Amino acid sequence: MIRAWSVADVRAAEEPLLAAGVPLMDRAAFALALQVLADLRARRRSARGAHVVVLAGAGNNGGDALHAGAHLVHRGVAVTAVLAADRVHEGGLAALRSAGGRVVDAAAAGRAPAAAVEAARADVVLDGLVGIGARGPLRGSAAALVTALGAAGLPTAGTDAEEGTPATHAEEAQGASAAVAREGTARPWVVAVDTPSGIGVDDGTLPGPVLHADRTVTFGAAKPGLLLPPAAHVVGEVTVVDIGLTLPGTPAVQRLAPADVAARWPVPGPQDHKYTRGVVGVVAGTATYPGAAVLTTTAAVRTGAGMVRYRGSDVVARAVLAARPEVVTAPGRVQSWVVGPGVPPAADGADDGQAARARAGLAAARGELAGLSRGPVPAVVDAGGLGLVEETCPPWFVLTPHAGELRTVLRRHGEDVHRAEIEAAPLRWARRAHDLTGATILLKGAVTVVVGTGIVHAQADAPAWLGTAGAGDVLAGILGTMLAARAADVVADPAVAGEVAASAALVHGLAAEHANPGGPVAALDVAEAVPGTVARLLDLWSS
Ligand SMILES: NC(=O)C1=CN([C@@H]2O[C@H](COP(=O)(O)OP(=O)(O)OC[C@H]3O[C@@H](n4cnc5c(N)ncnc54)[C@H](O)[C@@H]3O)[C@@H](O)[C@H]2O)[C@@H](O)CC1
Ligand SMILES: [K+]
Q1: Is the CB of 219 under 6 A from ligand 1?
Q2: Where, if anywhere, are coiled coils annotated (predicted)?
Q3: Is 197 a known ligand-binding residue?
Q4: Which domains does the chain have, with CATH numbers?
């Protein structure tokens, strides 16, 4: 598990140590230098003779980078510090100079392109422009430098949100681009110091230009922005360096690892039977979209449900039974409901009666229909089901929208927001949806964000191949089975639903990877890969 703490928590943990004179920056810089040396050795055998460019901003983040640069010089590395501020960390600069490092001033207008061209030829670029002290989008020389680095061939992300960016920056950038194209240089390995400079450290946004890192060496603890999209896509591999901070027990964001999911997997014992393992009720698909019913029920069965009950028209039920003869179609006891895959919005008349069945399932999950459940049980609400839920939900309802569907949910609650805004700030909008509906929100994406009453989760387990029709139906089925197995816990403790939802996202992602490592997958392949994926998880845990 990777756990991430907010800037405020990290600062509060640093404070007493700094007051006591603990040399936190020395620890951070030394560990950073060791990591860069390891990366250099992995990439070019020896660090000696390598060229590292340190991008240094005004604060302690630049201080870390400059001190690390000094350590590298002592190991035979040629280090050039590119200063992106009029004043940089004095101790760090002095250390670098006395070690024999070169210093280039890129703070003045017009200096960025030449510095970027030099950086683009280095073996490693250390991004120490700004860390947890970042306020808003990168500004001034730091922004100009990152823009010029992008033009010089380094990967960058985010837009220059700064109004009135001087035209010279664009011209400078073009100059840098042409110079590097002539040289045909391979691009350097980029190591971000604490965070890629200019990300939203607490919320994972990309408010302005950001240099895409291959590795982020982060101090004391991971920060939320390293796990949350869209910034999570520019951090590379995250290396957490222990500098001796004592952090609060509860992180702001966490990412489950396979072992965490394995540790809580409901492995059946000799006393278990189908009802103790959990019955999943599925309201999915119509004659127009029968595939959704097949995919959702298949995934629920393949994840190890005690039993799956399908609720739908006879024609769709026949398709379900042809694919999965284990499914039953008679009404009866259910420990979790999956409502909505392949179900059109309520207003659509051609829904085969699914809207009514969906409402009944949701009422049963609230504990309002005694015949269908003995008290409240968890529910997964997906696709068409999202338009059928009541305005407020219990936390054991897990809504599983993608960004476009979340927009619809938010609009129903009076939030006029566009899909692009949700994609730019998924945590913010998932949290807003949770606040407005009361439900646990699983916002699907390349990084899935789960916001409920407990800790926020950000899961990045899925290969990009998983973005395919029917993949969401499979996730709904996996999650339905996982919720049914822990139905009592989920209803009793509002925070559990989020953790189970994050676990389902992990299983879904790993199953896609296992279905066809490195290649395309179809949704049904993913569902079929779940039993093997669960067996591997449990094997990993027991070994
Ligand atoms: N407090 C400490 O002693 C420790 C700090 N650490 C390092 O120090 C960093 C935090 O240092 P600081 O608090 O000095 O903050 P930073 O160095 O992250 O940033 C602050 C500086 O950047 C400038 N800045 C802020 N937003 C900017 C923007 N959008 N565009 C351009 N410039 C901007 C500010 O004017 C200020 O000079 C951490 O990220 C970490 O790297 C580590 O060395 C561990 C110990
Ligand atoms: K940085």
Answers
A1: yes
A2: none
A3: yes
A4: 2-246 (3.40.50.10260), 270-542 (3.40.1190.20)
